[in-house]
Amino acid sequence: MTNTSESHPIVNPRESWLSQNNRKLMTIATTAKFLGISRDLVKELLQDPGCPRMVFNNGGTIRIPQDLLLDYVKKRSLNWYKY
User: Where in the sequence is the domain holding 29, given as residue range(s)?
Assistant: First the structure.
C-alpha cells in the first residue's frame, strides 16, 4: 500500500494562508514605511487597478500583500515610461 501523505501532505486547517505562504499583509502606513514613501503616495498607487490589495469591511479596510507589492513595484519600475 502506498503512503498517500507523501503525495498529499496533511495541512493543518489552523494554518492560515499567510503562514503557509510566508506572506505579510500591510496597512497603508506600513506600506509607506516599507517603500520609504508617503501615505498619500501609497493611496495614489492604489488608484492603479494593477496595484495589489485586499479590501475588507465594504472598502473600509485595505491591506497590501507584501510579496505581491514587491512584484508590482518591480514591474512598474521596469515599465516606468508607461505611467
Answer: 17-78
Rounded CA-CA distance 26/72 in Å is: 15
Each residue's pLDDT tens digit, 28-78: 999 999 999 999 999 999 999 999 999 999 888 999 999 999 999 999 999
Q: How far apart are CA 51 and CA 45, in angstroms?
A: 7
> Does 64 reside within a domain?
yes
pTM of the model: 0.69
The distance from CA 71 to its chain's CA centroid, rounded to whole angstroms, is 9
Distance of CA 9 to the CA centre of its chain: 25
Tell me, yes or no, whether 8 lies in a domain: no
Cell of 46: 492604489
DSSP 48: S
